[in-house]
Specification:
The protein is α+β, with helices and mostly antiparallel strands. It has helices at about 5-15, 30-35, 50-55, 65-70, 125-135, 140-160, 175-180, 195-200, 210-225, 230-240, 245-255, 260-270, 280-295, 320-325; strands at about 20, 45-50, 75-80, 85-90, 90-95, 115-120, 140, 260, 300-305, 310-315. The chain has 14 helices and ten strands. The strands form two sheets. Strands 6-5-4-1-2-3-7 form a seven-stranded mixed beta sheet. It has a three-stranded antiparallel beta sheet with strand order 8-10-9. The longest helix is centred in the middle third of the chain and has 17 residues, at about 140-160. The chain is globular.
Length: about 325
Amino acid sequence: MIEIGHQLQQLCRSAKKELWLVAPFIKLGTLTQLLQEVDAHICINCVTRWRPEDVLAGVSDLTIWPSLCDRPNTSLWLRQNLHAKYYRADSQCLVGSANLTQTALGWSPSSNLELLIPVFANDPVLQAFEQELNRNKTQVDDELYEQMQVVVEQLQQSRPDANWIAPDLPRTLAIPEQALAIKPETWVPTLRNPEALYLAYSGQQERLTSASREAAQSDLLHLSIPLSLTKPAFTAYVGFLLLQMPIVQSVDQFVETPQRFGAVTDLLESLPCADIPEFNSDRVWQTLMRWLRHFLPDRYALAVPNYSEVFYRVKKNSTSENVIG
């Protein structure tokens, strides 16, 4: 058996400045074992993906977040379409098939046959990969971690005995080529009424207008949600996904300070979504605002002081009066 784990431990031990651990699946015990090889002053970036169905299947641990919080110079990031396994210590890399799990690294009696190949970080392909990785990753904080916990709990309650596999969403409607061409970094929701998204998801399309059906199908295509969720689980899942969308992240940061309608539309006009055909900043913000309030009701609020809409992120232990005034 190839000693994949030993290879990775050696790489971690060699880090002098920074260490990147990038894998879709990360288990706490495996990560802890690797980080024991790393000096405390090393800057560590962990990048993974969190899908509730993966957590329920036992292939990823949310508990890596509180564990990493206790370590200096360490950050955790999410990239929802991550599939690569990439490990870099300064100028040395290992790339291949192995996730950060006991089974993948050969530390389990029933280990997988995996491969990690040593390469140099100055390879143009690897440099391009790391640039793309950094472009749309989301940094984990306590609020994102707590939102993910809610989603996992909702899924567990709704289908406690389920085998959590997320199949492709069946597409009963034709998707316009324009919708298929939209990239994650430009995506914004198109369905005006967010409550109707669950109707489309749960097979009740006949209750929607043709325009709403098409918009819902387009949005569901970009969100990629497991099938057969209850409405509470679906709502929590969409909220978690929204917080990882690049446009939503920009708006989320902007409304940490309360913002009026026109200020947010100005922001949207400066973001990549402005390149979408027939982009209308007023319409986009009206739609996105509804989605944020519907799917993340505890995170955002709307006030109307002096007949002017003000949208903002809710701060813990605060009221609307002391937030906006």
